Amino acid sequence: MSYDVVALIDGRPSYQDVLAGMMAAGPDWLVRDVSDGAVLQLCNPAGEPLASLEAPILIQVPGEVERLLGPELAGVPTPVWWAEVRADPQNGGPELADRYAAELVKRLGGQVWKPAPPPFDPPTGPAVTDVAGGNNA
Fold first, then answer.
1. At 104, is the secondary structure helix, strand, or coil?
2. Domains of the chain: residue spans and CATH
3. pTM value?
4. Where is this region: Disordered (predicted)?
């Protein structure tokens, strides 16, 4: 499962904006393009992808952002540019994705959508009452 972040940005990102976002994510990552350049991957020095930066798309349909991301985004005006980042949920991927999206919003205006953290689901099973290992029988 990936960590997904969406930058909902007011202006069309230029190559300079994307590059600034990549630099904000971290200047030491390797860059690889996939899908004929529709996706850029930021990779660690071993070449393993940490985040995939999808080409921004223009959302023009009113209510589409709310439909896709939830009612908390009902007020997002259209048109808006949607720049999605899918990151490895470990190995620094979420922080990298957050920095990239934040830089785009800083440069162009808008807001960042992040997923809600998963609910904590404590393990179930028999209660442990004697942790010292003794026998109370």
1. helix
2. 3-113 (3.30.1400)
3. 0.80
4. 114-137
